[in-house]
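Researcher: I'd like a candidate sequence for this fold, 153 residues long. If you have to choose between options at a position, lean toward the conservative one.
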């Protein structure tokens, strides 16, 4: 019996790396699904699984190169993974078209809310105490002017 040549060893090591990376990703997904079943409210297990994977990578418990073989394949074929969802949407096109104004309103109001919150947080974290006091003083003046105009009108 002869030893396997270098090419077949390389193929075997790539297959083993893929199986290991798939097992890690599937393990995080399974743990996330299990945790979601324990919660008293509905929360997607896949999201919890991604958070677990993120924490394991961030805490350096897992190394990125351990999950890269399977992740690369999934990323390469991601378009095909969305086809069932897109086909499922076709069955509900009438409902989507009936609700198009509500959808547009929700999207635009969500964008506006995000812009306001992010802008306010940025303003809060970048201002020093003196700038904050100046802004509060300007706000007080503006509200006083509005009150005076209302009384005079």
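Model: Candidate sequence:
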């Amino acid at each position: 019996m002869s030893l396997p040549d270098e090419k077949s060893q390389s193929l075997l090591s790539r297959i083993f790396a893929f199986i290991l990376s798939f097992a890690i990703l599937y393990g995080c997904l399974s743990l996330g699904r299990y945790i979601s079943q324990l919660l008293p409210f509905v929360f997607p297990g896949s999201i919890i699984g991604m958070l677990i994977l993120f924490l394991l990578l961030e805490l350096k418990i897992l190394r990125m190169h351990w999950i890269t073989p399977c992740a690369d394949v999934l990323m390469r074929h991601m378009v095909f993974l969305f086809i069932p969802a897109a086909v499922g949407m076709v069955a509900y096109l009438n409902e989507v078209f009936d609700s198009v104004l509500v959808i547009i309103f929700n999207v635009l109001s969500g964008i506006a809310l995000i812009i306001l919150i992010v802008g306010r947080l940025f303003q809060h974290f970048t201002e020093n105490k003196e700038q904050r006091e100046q802004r509060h003083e300007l706000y007080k003046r503006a509200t006083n002017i509005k009150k005076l105009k209302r009384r005079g009108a």
